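Appendix C reproduces, verbatim, an entry submitted by the partner laboratory led by Prof. M.T., so that reviewers can inspect both the input and the predicted structure.
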Amino acid sequence: MIKRNRTRIYALGQHIPMSAHKARRVIDQIRGRSYEETLMILELMPYRASYSIFKLVYSAAANASDNMGSDETNLIICRAEVNEGTSVKKLKPRARGRSYPIKRPTCHISIVVEDISLYEGEYLIDPYIHKDYLASLKKPSYLLKIKKPRWKKRYTDMIDENVYSSGGLWDKK
């Protein structure tokens, strides 16, 4: 039996010249998705951060196929995080010989991919089971199918109310 103890491969981008807040906006959309779906999402997003993240995801997949020999169709983004880096500080000349400080923020982005072909079968788990039991399964949380609560309604009536005609929001005077 061959035991693979290293199933996660990562790519790390440091000192990327953008704020961490703008990069997190894109990272939150791709976390937990498959590799192919992630590339499609990043190509269609209009943000400047998506190009840097696209390169990192592509690099992480290349690392996984080179180091583990895994197929790119089986890869999933299991962890993606953005941390703040150092700020590049500059001085801009202003009137009367004064200077004005400019801070250019940077960020560190790490993308971790995992090969899901190493796990056979999926568990069907109630979402209200104790957390220690879930940790003892040694499986990533995105592979667990979670049951929906029984009390959740399947059909909900949509309330069609016009706020303006019922006088709810504005008083026209």
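Confidence is low (pLDDT under 50) at residues 1-5, 122-127, 146-163, 168-173. Additional entries are available on request from the coordinating office.
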